[in-house]
């Protein structure tokens, strides 16, 4: 089963049947299950974007997908660009991250078992290759590199971006802890980032939600095409690092 986690502006694009509530020990998660295509859809901000990035129950979301038998997740994120060559309207596939979040529940293992999960390759290499092959086949411009996750919900300052741009390539507010939580449950996870704007200080203008939403709108057909190809991709057996991630990570 494949999980699609939608971000800003995606609820309008990816439509599904009625929402179901999955009760987990970390709280409730709302999903749309398409039994025919074996796909679970989850909108991280809620169907009406009522949840800001720092209030999302990431653990309930990822745990609910695990309970439903999801083995592969395609997360859709919107990001600001930290590099001139990474233009708004392009896609971005992260291969690493750094995070500056402050008050998020970032592990399933905070009582009982002590688990130190390996983060050498935080995103599933197999899924990243599938995603890259889809974008290349469709000639959609994309970049690869480091996703910088901030707490939000404010945008970053010019000074923060002057620092972040030396450490990463794009900045967002939702990529973490999703990627870690998925690995802790041995789920393959990759992120398709839509570059919606230049980050503060790189952009010549102030940052607005309107700019983010209008760029997502302009990219929606491409996002839909990519998601459709991804969910119809003939994945073989999982032989990546993700499926046995806990093997060498547990103490005691
Ligand atoms: C409206 S801009 C900021 C908003 O968009 C991003 O969310 P997502 O990655 O889920 O598309 C960012 O993280 C903020 O939540």
UniProtKB/TrEMBL annotation:
One protein family per Pfam: PNP_UDP_1
Binding sites annotated in the UniProt record for phosphate: 8, 44-45, 174
Pathway(s) annotated for this protein in UniProt: Purine metabolism; purine nucleoside salvage
Annotated Gene Ontology cellular component terms: cytosol
Record site: Important for substrate specificity: 156, 209
GO biological process, one term: L-methionine salvage from methylthioadenosine
Key word Transferase present: yes
GO molecular function, one term: S-methyl-5-thioadenosine phosphorylase activity
Record's catalysed reaction(s): S-methyl-5'-thioinosine + phosphate = 5-(methylsulfanyl)-alpha-D-ribose 1-phosphate + hypoxanthine
Stated family: Belongs to the PNP/MTAP phosphorylase family. MTAP subfamily.
Other known facts: Although this enzyme belongs to the family of MTA phosphorylases based on sequence homology, it has been shown that conserved amino acid substitutions in the substrate binding pocket convert the substrate specificity of this enzyme from 6-aminopurines to 6-oxopurines.
HAMAP family for this protein: MTAP
Protein name: Probable S-methyl-5'-thioinosine phosphorylase
Organism per entry: Methanocaldococcus vulcanius (strain ATCC 700851 / DSM 12094 / M7)
């Amino acid at each position: 089963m494949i999980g699609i986690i939608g971000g800003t502006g995606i609820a309008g694009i990816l439509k599904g049947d009625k929402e179901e509530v999955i009760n987990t020990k970390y709280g409730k998660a709302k999903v749309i299950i398409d039994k025919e295509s074996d796909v679970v859809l989850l909108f991280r901000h809620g169907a009406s974007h009522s949840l800001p990035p720092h209030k999302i129950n990431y653990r309930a979301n990822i745990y609910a997908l695990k309970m439903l038998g999801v083995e592969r997740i395609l997360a859709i994120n919107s990001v600001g660009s930290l590099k001139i060559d990474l233009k708004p309207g392009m896609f971005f596939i992260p291969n690493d991250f750094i995070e500056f979040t402050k008050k998020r529940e970032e592990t399933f293992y905070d009582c009982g078992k002590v688990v130190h999960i390996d983060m050498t390759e935080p995103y599933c290499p197999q899924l990243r290759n599938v995603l890259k092959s889809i974008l290349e086949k469709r000639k959609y411009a994309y970049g690869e590199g480091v996703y910088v996750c901030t707490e939000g919900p404010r945008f970053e300052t010019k000074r923060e971006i002057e620092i972040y741009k030396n450490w990463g390539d794009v900045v967002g507010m939702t990529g973490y802890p999703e990627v870690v939580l998925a690995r802790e449950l041995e789920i393959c996870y990759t992120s398709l980032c839509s570059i919606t704007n230049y980050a503060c200080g790189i952009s010549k203008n102030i940052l607005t939600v309107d700019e983010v939403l209008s760029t997502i709108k302009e990219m929606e057909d491409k996002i839909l095409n990519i998601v459709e190809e991804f969910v119809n991709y003939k994945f073989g057996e999982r032989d990546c690092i993700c499926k046995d991630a806990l093997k060498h990570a547990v103490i005691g």
